[in-house]
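Order emerges. One example.
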Amino acid sequence: MSEMDSTRPSPVHPEDNALLEVFIYGGGKVGRGLARAIRDAGLRVTLRPARDGLPSERIEANFVILAVRDRDIAPCAEALRDRGLVGHRDVAVVHCAGALGPEALAAARGGRVSVAQMHPMISFASPSFAPFLERGQLHIDGDPTAVRAARSLGVCLGMTPRTFPGLDRVAYHAAAGLVANGAAALAAAGVDLLERAGIDRRTAAEMLGPLLRTVADNVEVLGVPDALTGPVRRGDAAGVARHLEALCRLAPHLVPFYVAAAATQLPLARVLGEAPADAFDAIQRVLDGIQQ
């Protein structure tokens, strides 16, 4: 485990980026998104879809990214070693899995091969749409040489590289999934409700996208609980009750979702304290009445 301070990035020399030549194995959402961003940053990059298999000749890049499914990372590392595809020159081999550490690549590690985990906390949803990486967070851990190269690449992409000693990677990955996929599910629920309110689905999505972006900006800049808005923060029990009445009438299947979200907001609203305690108690009674 690296002992690098998560809040103090190691020095990155400008010339490091110019020396990086990247090979990405895996042409799915993450692989294609990273390839496009790396190319846009002015670096040389080769993208090889996993369906084509590993190349038959040695990989000449000095930075190799395995953008494949978690279960395929260790077998890929073994194949890189057994076929002699890496190790003939100095190379950093990294994977992009959030829940796996650098040891998933242990088979490829050697005298001239360093390995690392390099997980972008970014939502990659489609091979044809590359997400915006700038200001994104990049968790890196592994051998010092590979970590340095990955941090250099991250900075080149406008991301913030971080290393967290002793990180519980499964909990870390669960948090990322909860926010990314939970937000997508929440947006789907919102589209459903807006459609029932009289707005077509395409327009509903176009309305909710900017709303989610402003929430993301508030979370990043203000943090929590300050990013919270709406009737729960204001202690508006009557407003919450009206929302639930509309949901019961138009979309009863979304009521549990709303109740769970409101219940999660309540402790945050109490910390902010913009309404008296009895106002928040009244919201709790509204939620309890629905759950009975």
User: Anything to note?
Assistant: The chain has three domains: 14-167, 168-222, 224-292. The beta strands are 21-25, 44-48, 63-66, 91-95, 113-120, 137-142, 160-162. DSSP finds ten helices and seven strands in the chain.
